[in-house]
Amino acid sequence: MESVPYDKRTGKIWFNSKTLDWSDAKIHVLNHGLHYASCVFEGERVYDGEIFKLEEHTERLFYSAKRMGMKVPYSQEEINDASKNIVNIQKVQNGYVRPIIWRGSEMMAISAQKNKINVAIATWEWGSYFDPKLKKEGIKLNISSWRRPNPNSVPWDTKASGLYMICTLSKHEAESKGFTDSLMLDHEGKIAEATGANIFFKNKKGELHTPVPDSFLDGITRREVIKIAKSKGIKVTERKILPDELKEFEGCFLTGTAAEVTPVSQINEYKFKICDMISDLNTSYQNLVRKKTAA
């Protein structure tokens, strides 16, 4: 299914309170979301037919919309219900959910005060974000030439579509050089995140260090993994991390709704081990999302 273009797939999409055929969920080329990035979204995982942390994702979606000056014409409860319903209609057992909010085509200029706020929710079966073999062996990152913007210049704490332009550029740059993904630095030159996931490092003492999310999203998966680590007695420190410190760490992994817990084997010339701690955190996370108890 993943080889089929997304506009050629079949089924239903929730679109402004109506359940449309997949091919009928269309927008005009002159919509504000496309031209001026008046668009926010979420990415959610379905495990065994249920959306993981749905309420938290919807709450963040509404926060992003508010930060972008968009008043959502539905309640959070309505969006939660619509998300569950479309997953059931599509019979998705293990997949992805993409709710999206954007300004329409009523005005085509910088100002968009009269534009309709549109909402759609699509879902599909989807496996691992990274190749399973790469995920097992650890993915390789370069360091992007693009940086996370100064938080005073963008709505950095939202999932706004415009913020992902440099992520696409960074990932393309990484792939062209034989890497899987890219590590992005913040506006101060300190370690921030990967293109679509947060990052953690393990030191020689068995402690975890992760960047302070002050110019990028404090991911929902990130927070859950921190809880899991602390429940295991692992010390987790959130702090500013310099690129020069990479040589001091033994392990590294990414966290995110799509990435889940993905080990990193290399960042530029720095190599990392796929240690038992990272494997154990991944197992515990999978148990959490699938509501299994540890053996």
Descriptive terms for the model:
single chain, 295 residues, alpha+beta, D-amino Acid Aminotransferase, Chain A, domain 1, D-amino Acid Aminotransferase, Chain A, domain 2, 2 domains, nine-stranded mixed sheet, seven-stranded antiparallel sheet
Question: How are the elements arranged and paired?
Answer:
Blueprint: E1 12-15, E2 18-21, H1 32-36, E3 39-41, E4 44-47, E5 50-51, H2 54-67, H3 76-90, E6 95-103, E7 117-125, H4 132-137, E8 139-147, H5 165-176, E9 181-185, E10 191-194, E11 198-202, E12 208-211, H6 220-231, E13 236-239, E14 251-256, E15 260-267, E16 270-271, H7 276-289
Helix pairs in contact: 2-3
Biggest pleated sheet: 9 strands, mixed
Q: In the residues, how many domains can be counted?
A: 2
- Classified by CATH, the class of the largest domain is Alpha Beta
Report the helical percentage: 25-40%
- Give the distance, in angstroms, between the N- and C-terminal Cα atoms: 34 Å
Which architecture of the largest domain does the CATH hierarchy give at level 2? Alpha-Beta Barrel
Structural class: alpha+beta
Structural Rg: 19 Å
